[in-house]
Specification:
Elements: H1 4-12, E1 17-23, H2 28-31, E2 40-43, H3 44-47, H4 64-73, E3 81-85, H5 90-102, E4 108-110, H6 114-120, H7 149-158, E5 160-163, H8 167-171, E6 183-184, H9 200-208, E7 218-221, H10 228-237, E8 242-244, H11 248-252
Parallel strand pairs: 1-2, 1-3, 3-4, 5-6, 5-7, 7-8
Length: 267
Amino acid sequence: MISAEHLLKELERGRDIVLLEIGREPAHALAASEHLPGAHYVDLPTQLAGARYPGSGTYPLPSREAVQRQVRRWSINDGAVVVVHTRAEPQLATRAWWILTWAGVPDVRYLDGGVEAWVTAGGRLSREEPAEGGGGFTVTPGSLPTLDAEEAARLARSGKLLDARAADAYTGEQGGGHIPGALNLPSAANLGTDGRLKGQDELREQYAALGISEGTGVGVYCGGGIAATVDILALSTLGIAAELYPGSWSEWASDPSRPVVRGDAPG
């Protein structure tokens, strides 16, 4: 992560920093509003996710070529610090953090608190549009581990598999349910009322209550592989590595032969 205060200092020092504002709107949305100076707008579904296919889940991983194209467009070079942020949906930025790290970008930071934190810290907003092109970094997808459906099911039995959806989705109150053995920790539980990540002591306590500490094998899923990355980011601040099941519930539920548990017990 990076705080807004630290980001301001790094920019003043002249560091090579690429700012990416992550959303779910057409690219012209950023130009129509004030944003962090020089930030590129990233439409997560079209720029950092692959095309859907039968049984894929909602947001498949992008291809190497697709990520490489965006890296060039956003002017990401060797040695650059990439800072991802949002206005209102932290999980979009954590998914971008995860995807770019998975693609081998070595220094990707999540701006804690997003645009609001930037403004609170005294950062200015502008309508300045960034230059595009020239990024020379070569991506290497697979730099973070992932789980497929079978591996997620095994981890639910041998380690800890977390479901990062809201409780009513986990229990199946509105249809659905969860993967047998999965524990529920909604992604929002990692954030305080100000939208920033909770302190390490508080996070460590809530994960310890689920039997998770350093050395625990952990996997995380959600509806489409986005919200789960909030849990993964929070765990990373505690020194705990967690694997993402990118297909998540949308992939799991696409196969009627896969078992489903309803209710608040893992099963």
